[in-house]
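JOB MANIFEST
job_type = single_chain_structure
chain_count = 1
residues = 118
[input]
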Amino acid sequence: MINITVPTPDVTIYKEIAPELSNIYGFTDFHLITREKGGIFMFYNSKDELLFVGKARKLRPRIKKHFEDTVSPIKNHRNEVSKIEVCVIEDAVDREIYETYIINEFMAKYNVDKVFYK
């Protein structure tokens, strides 16, 4: 049996109710997320339910793209996202393993690929 421990998030950002600064769907702290490193990210709703898990070679641009892209799996649910957790994981194989594990262990609501629990 393989034991996988979900890494502790390196950065967590929260949606603001009435942000005064420039924002994307209420999030103003994207600058806290690394632009150059890879890792995994998790979107949660206000009830702390996991909505979506993804991985990226460059985290900040990929996360922002989910809020701007017309083909994102969360495109119709962007307003639900109230928290984003980011784990920096440089190794591509490790990112793949963590992403697949988290999607299935915590039953991410809007992931469609790599789902084995349905």
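[summary]
The chain has a mean pLDDT of 93.
DSSP finds two helices and four strands in the chain.
exit_status = 0
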